[in-house]
């Protein structure tokens, strides 16, 4: 895996999205609703729900919002969202993988296509870029919350069943097999670590630098996709500036 800090990029995007907090909560509510609807309202017996709740808490989503989404799933709501993925290329040939939860496939497909075409990208067929990404469990420990050194964290990660540990100045970043994610997360929490982030994500196998003259277009494309109410996650194979 590349040695750059994914956490640094996540933090940067979180800071940039502070003004969009309401939209983020709306998307998280949709994820919580679907997880509770499909697997039950008890997070202790529904790993997917617990993961989404952890994600919501990491985004400072109020407890009332979380509980409201779960209660809605327990009720007689007939809301239903389909999980859809879209694949394509951003300016400069950078692979983009999009995950959406939508109650109107036609609307979402049209909106995503417009976002790509208006910002110098192109929407591809299913499978056109997904093979360029690996599904991974991703866990972050903020270094300021633990006295453990890298050797100790590595030992604990390996004992828990994790695949890889990357260390930066501000964080320990752990990658796992998706099937081992919950086991690793729970083991690290049991060891006393406070997790700053824990989620399933898509990691590019290789990265592509964004040409300087395409960077603004690239950022506009990512922003347009993330601004869409139906889009839950946007993953790109863009190389960091410092790579």
What topology emerges from the helices and strands here?
Elements: H1 6-16, H2 21-39, H3 47-58, H4 63-74, E1 82-90, E2 94-102, H5 105-118, E3 122-124, E4 133-142, H6 150-160, E5 164-167, E6 171-176, H7 181-190, E7 195-204, H8 215-227, E8 231-236
Antiparallel strand pairs: 1-2, 1-3, 2-8, 4-6, 4-7, 5-6
Helix pairs in contact: 2-3, 2-4
What does this structure look like?
This protein is of the alpha+beta class and 243 residues long. The chain has a domain at 6-74: Arc Repressor Mutant, subunit A, CATH 1.10.10. It is 42% helix and 23% strand. The protein has eight helices and eight strands; from the N terminus they run ααααββαββαββαβαβ. It has helices spanning 6-16, 21-39, 47-58, 63-74, 105-118, 150-160, 181-190, 215-227, and strands at residues 82-90, 94-102, 122-124, 133-142, 164-167, 171-176, 195-204, 231-236. The strands form two sheets. It has a four-stranded antiparallel β-sheet with strand order 3-1-2-8. Strands 5-6-4-7 form a four-stranded antiparallel β-sheet. α2 (21-39) packs antiparallel against α3 and α2 (21-39) runs parallel beside α4 (63-74). The longest helix is centred in the first third of the chain and has 19 residues, at 21-39. It starts with 5 loop residues before the first helix and ends in a 7-residue tail after the last strand. 33% of the residues are buried. The mean pLDDT is 91. Residues 1-22 are annotated as: Disordered. Residues 5-75 form the TACO1/YebC-like N-terminal domain.
